[in-house]
Amino acid sequence: MALDLERLIHEQAARKLELDRFGTYFLGRIDDEEAERFSKALIVMAGMRAGARAEDKQLNVYINSGGGSVGAGFAMMEMMYRVKRDFGLRIRTVITGYAYSMGAILVQAGDCRVMGKYSTLMLHSGSWMIAGEDQRVFEDYRKLSDHYKALIGGMFADRTGRRDARWWIRYIYSGHDRFLSAQECLKLGLIDVVTDETYNDSVVCTP
């Protein structure tokens, strides 16, 4: 049993090293622990590409996520923008299955946003768990919620180039879960490419 565990650990480490070498990360859950792991991996992959040819300076983030923490998601986005800026990299975000809630927001950080035709994206209002009776607690969280709404509405307006921030805030925070197909996402400007069985994954797309 001990030998099997050692072998599994060795295989997992070797697999991670290969993924880093190929500039590939698979993202599922979005929480503080994963945000730290993701950020460290991006730095490692970016460092491995220092001085590389332009065509080799792309990272791929495959997203199959039901969402998670807003704060952790924004931390991941900050690191994506940082490595693009500091290392001159491009990042391609690829939805493989589904990207819901914060997962859908993370997709927007990619220079090229790709979505399989069988995948689904979902946008909806965030939920909060607040403990306490002090009215100021609720007021503080309302301010934070409004802050996130403004950030997200502005980001979708900038990234899609369609509609303004107020329209996106109304659309996302409608009180409904908005499930969108790949073609619907393409029409809204939420992605750049819809893939099918013939898509060549080595192609570097230009939004």
Elements, N to C (H/E): HEHEHEHEEHHEHE
Q: What is the CATH C level class of the largest domain, in words?
A: Alpha Beta
Radius of gyration: 18 Å
SS-based structural class?
alpha/beta
| Overall morphology | globular
Count of separate structural domains: 2
- Largest sheet data: 7 strands, mixed
Number of strands: 7
Strand content: 15-25%
| CATH fold naming of the largest domain | 2-enoyl-CoA Hydratase, Chain A, domain 1
Helix fraction bin: 40-55%
CATH superfamily heading of the largest domain: 2-enoyl-CoA Hydratase, Chain A, domain 1
Tally of contiguous helical segments: 7
CATH level-two architecture of the largest domain: Alpha-Beta Complex
What is the CA-CA span between the terminal residues?
50 Å
Task: Write down the oligomeric state.
Answer: single chain
Q: Which residue ranges are poorly predicted, with pLDDT under 50 across at least 5 consecutive positions?
A: none
* Average predicted local confidence, pLDDT: 85
